[in-house]
Design a protein that fits this description.
mainly alpha; 6 strands; 4-stranded mixed sheet
Length: 539
């Protein structure tokens, strides 16, 4: 029976994690309610936020989602449970950003539930102190090795490493990626329930709830699904090797339960594989994502989790080696080795996403190992070690990273908010009966699909065809350099692509916007000014 101290401490950890995780979204909503700011809809990386909102708008109109950033939206073949529900709420009248943001508290609950379930299933109730330390470390791990010294990586590789550091930090999922948070939490819940069922007193019967959880885990996002499959297969095989488990501990038997779970997790992955192979709009994203990580060294994935990787093997020095210990280990290795395989083979994309949630099993293993190694030490020494570890890996780096996220929320460069005039220009495009696409420089391009239902020339970098070429062309013709300095070439470019509208953002210097209007000349049928933003309707 957990002690009252443990229950109180657990509630405090939950509350702190929820408070910190909701802080960025809460700050966005506060600025809207208290000061009337116009929210872009993003509460994390703006481009990804606009991607999700574009998907929600697509789901609100068709349920099935096509690529809203392609010149032709293409075949609508993407069905997603969370985006579909948000689309339904948007269809009923809830503003699209709020229909998507509702998943953020669900993500908080999912991650907290998953981490707590894993820790409590792995560490006995009598070990209240280690349970709390493992929970704090699993939820709050925020170590950033690049803050300790220079890491020799090129510009592109540093971008990839930055993503890896973000995915290794559980709270980062709550700053714009609620789908990843829900899927990661489900992964932890399913694996913890699985190792409990395989060695507990009730091993018979069909694990329907676990199968449903595995299916949703893979469907919501494929990376946790891959981790789940690899972890279960490896654990079942390793646990059957003579001598791996201690004598007398419960051992898994039969293959019916793992087969059902694996089948449930595999079905959505087959669906995603078919999307990549058969639908060009979705294959495009994978190709351009692979190009972003090409050349990144494998150790860049492992380095963000280095402290836990050094401590986790200590768990295997305990006197009891059971199926729980095997599963925690295969869960950790499935994510790390799976990410490395994707990175080196380029058979998938965004290998860094395989790091999501790995702090939970690695922290649990580390605490089990350290608690066993120091079991004869004085209580004060063990408390001091725990305190120093949490300060170094959770409190100090976590406070710094949270401060950066809150600061970025208010930084105009990150486009969490847009000017009222830009919002009015978007509304005018949405209300127009004129057919055609939109050219909108900068981050506004990614906002075009969900705000207007139209296709931007340059939107999200992963879903825009020929993104690098289009981006450079847009920059040249808008800013007036290279071929864009010529009036004839500028008019030829805009005419050949059939743009209906050009949205000139407030961030574009006055001289640059006036020069663009001058070069377009008679192609501009109408010029509308919305405070600091200009909307050009082309002939």
């Amino acid at each position: 029976m957990p002690s009252r101290w443990y229950r109180s401490s657990k509630l405090a950890v939950w509350a702190l994690f929820a408070f910190a995780g909701c802080s960025v979204l809460a700050r966005c909503l506060y600025q809207v309610i208290a000061h009337g700011w116009v929210w872009s809809g993003a509460f994390g990386y703006t481009a990804d936020g606009m991607q999700y909102l574009g998907f929600v708008r697509e789901a609100s109109r068709h349920l099935l989602i096509g690529n809203p950033f392609a010149t032709e939206v293409g075949t609508r073949v993407f069905l997603h449970p969370m985006l579909g529900l948000s689309g339904g709420l948007a269809w009923l009248g809830l503003p699209i950003p709020y229909a998507f943001a509702l998943w953020m508290p669900v993500g908080v609950i999912s991650v907290v539930w998953g981490a707590t379930r894993a820790v409590e299933s792995a560490i006995p109730a009598s070990e209240s102190g280690p349970r709390i330390v493992a929970l704090i470390l699993g939820l709050g791990y925020a170590f950033r090795p690049d803050q300790l010294g220079h890491i020799p990586l090129g510009l592109k590789e540093r971008l990839s490493f930055s993503v890896a550091e973000g995915d290794a930090w559980p709270m980062r999922l709550l700053f714009g990626w609620p789908l990843g948070a829900v899927s990661t939490g489900l992964l932890a819940v399913v694996l913890a329930g699985y190792w409990t069922k395989r060695t507990g007193p009730t091993r018979s019967g069909t694990p329907w709830l676990l199968c449903i959880g595995a299916f949703l885990c893979s469907w919501i996002q494929p990376w946790p699904g891959l981790t789940l499959i690899a972890a279960v297969v490896a654990a079942e095989l390793v646990s059957r090797i003579p001598g791996v488990l201690s004598n007398g501990v419960p051992r898994p038997t039969g293959w019916r339960t793992p087969a059902l779970l694996l089948a449930s997790a595999t079905c959505p992955l087959i669906y995603y594989a078919l999307l990549d192979r058969l639908e060009s709009g979705w294959a495009l994203s994978g190709v351009q994502l692979v190009a972003l990580t090409h050349g990144t060294p494998w150790w860049a994935l492992w380095l963000p989790l280095a402290p836990l990787l050094l401590l986790a093997p200590l768990a295997w020095r305990t006197t009891t080696r059971d199926f729980r210990l095997v599963m925690l280990t295969t869960w950790s290795l499935a994510g790390l080795l799976g990410g490395t395989l994707i990175l080196e083979s380029e058979l998938g994309n965004v290998p860094q996403h395989m790091l999501r949630g790995l702090s939970i099993p690695l922290a649990t293993l580390s605490v089990i190992g350290v608690a066993h190694a120091t079991r004869s030490w004085p209580g004060a020494s063990r408390v001091a070690i725990s305190g120093i570890t949490l300060l170094a890996l959770v409190v100090i780096p976590g406070t710094m990273r949270l401060g950066t996220e809150l600061s970025d929320t208010m930084n105009p460069v990150n486009q969490r908010f847009i000017a009222p005039g830009e919002a009015e220009a978007f509304k005018a495009i949405s209300n127009s009966q004129r057919a055609g696409g939109v050219l909108a420089p900068g981050p506004l391009g990614a906002m075009v699909p969900w705000r207007t239902g139209r296709v931007p020339w340059v939107g999200h970098r992963n879903l825009t065809p020929d993104y690098n070429l289009r981006s450079s062309q847009q920059s040249a013709y808008v800013n007036g350099f290279g071929l864009g300095a010529s009036t004839a070439e500028t008019q030829k470019f805009f005419k050949s692509h059939g743009f209906a509208f050009v949205l000139i953002p407030c961030s574009l210097p006055v001289g640059t916007r006036l020069n663009l209007i001058k070069r377009l000349g008679g192609q501009v049928a109408r010029t509308q000014r919305f405070e600091c933003a200009y909307l050009l309707t082309l002939r």
